[in-house]
Write a structure and sequence with these properties.
With 147 residues, the chain is mostly helical. It has eight helices and no strands. It starts with a helix and ends in a 14-residue tail after the last helix.
Length: 147
């Protein structure tokens, strides 16, 4: 009976974690913090952070920053907003923090990213390039005809 209760608690936590993740995906531009997210699903912030990391491989904060930067990249590619406007549109309250996080995740500043996009007319999006150039691991390779 103990194993069933543990399994049910784990499944209940995973459902709550999905709710938290979905909320961050929808409301990335709003001021979200771990305490408020945890309170919304009736968890302690520590339990939410540990459980989220175990389930998704990163902290809730890191997940939220990644969503914000992905959205910022899309807005910068679109080209109709200034870097400052993009910063505030995706939920950052500081241009310095935005630039630092962007540079950490993308490998260049937001301005550098925008300039690269503007210079690379007709270039494939990075997600397509990554998919096309992804190395094939041995276990994924098609069997050799002689095998």
């Amino acid at each position: 009976m103990g194993d069933d209760a543990t399994r049910e608690a784990r499944l209940r936590d995973l459902a709550l974690l999905r709710r938290v993740r979905d909320r961050m995906d929808r409301e990335f531009a709003l001021p979200l913090n771990v305490e408020a997210l945890a309170q919304d699903v009736h968890m302690s912030s520590g339990h939410l952070s540990r459980s989220f990391r175990a389930a998704y491989g990163e902290s809730p904060y890191s997940y939220l920053m990644t969503r914000r930067i992905e959205r910022a990249m899309a807005l910068l590619r679109r080209g109709d907003l200034s870097v400052t406007d993009v910063c505030f549109t995706v939920g950052f309250s500081s241009l310095g923090t935005f630039s630092t996080r962007f540079s950490e995740l993308v490998g260049m500043s937001p301005i550098g990213y925008r300039q690269r996009v503007e210079r690379s007319d007709g270039e494939l999006p990075s997600c397509v390039t990554k998919a096309v150039t992804r190395p094939v691991r041995n276990r994924e390779a098609a069997p050799h005809p002689r095998d």
